[in-house]
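haha ok so turns out i had the wrong file open the whole time. this is the CORRECT one, sorry everyone. sequence first:
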Amino acid sequence: MHDVAKPVKTQMKSKLKTMGVAVGGLIALIVVIVGIKGLQIGKMVSTPMVMPPTTVSSASVKEEDWAPRLTAVGSVGAVQGAVVSAELGGIVSASTLENGAAAKKGEVLMKLDASQEEALLRSAEAEAQLAGTDLERSRDLAMKKVVSSAELDSAQSKFRRLNAVVDQMRSNIAKKSLIAPFDGQLGIRQVNVGQMINAGQQVVALTGLDPVYVDFALPEQYLSKLAKDLNVIVRSDAFPNREFKGKLTAINSMVDPVTRNVALQATLQNPDHALHPGMFAKVEVALPETKKTIVIPGSAVSYAPYGDSVFLVEKQKDPKTGKESQVLRQQFVRIGDARGDFVAVTQGLKAGQTVVGTGVFKLRNGMAVTVNNDLAPKPELNPKPADT
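then structure:
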């Protein structure tokens, strides 16, 4: 029995030895893998992570000749405007008024009943005709020395008086018709056919819409720069995509002692009657001189309460590799006038520099960028529609 147990023990020792070798190999493999991963992680930690460059659009800083403009707000007024009223009272017998229609000078707008005046006119004409016949007879008799000069003078006076009565009657009949005093556009009528109206009662508004005035005011310090016939540009909230051009036609001779503003008036052609009296107007007066101005697109400015800024695109060389790249530098600027898609920069930039054109709110100082203007919008000085 001792001979049988000995081979069994030898086999068990051999199996245990084989298992030990396998476990040791597995542990060694795990140690090698952990070591490699540790080296990779260490290398990743030691190497700083570099973000890929951000794609931006660019715009050049330009120097252009801009004419200074003075801005103000005002109101549109009519060159000719009146409320047509009845000069005499009566009953409205006929009307050609159409609300909002155009009227020509001399056109009859409304008639009042004048039958009584017409009857009185016929009576006065008959008496005047008789007085004319008596006057001719008196002249013949005066030549024959049959009547005295006093009787002839009395006949002449009666003839003139009765003719004056006829003229008065004709004038009263004419006043029974309301006539358009000038070309213009009618408003909404306030009386109807068959209605009894009194003398002086308002009937309808009549307004001349071409040309129109724009009344506005500017501070007195600009008075030395103002002169008649300066170009004026007017914009209205009712037509945000249009510019109305005119001339400065009147400068008030006095400055308001309370506001220290001088009242001004511009005249604009208004052939399509787009502007109406009373409308709010934004006015720009273009001064004749020009000056060099640094301009950039308005979309390039990052507006903030603590100051406006732009992002300059500058080339920077890596001191280690010598590789050149484009990076951003935030530059604070002072903004002036705005025209179309452009704004004037009074401080902070010079011509020839390059700024980021759009999307400046997502950028930061020192960021690496690449420039691509393929899809960038093109700014315009006179965009259509305006203010876009």
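The chain is about 25% helix and 40% strand.
again sry for the mixup
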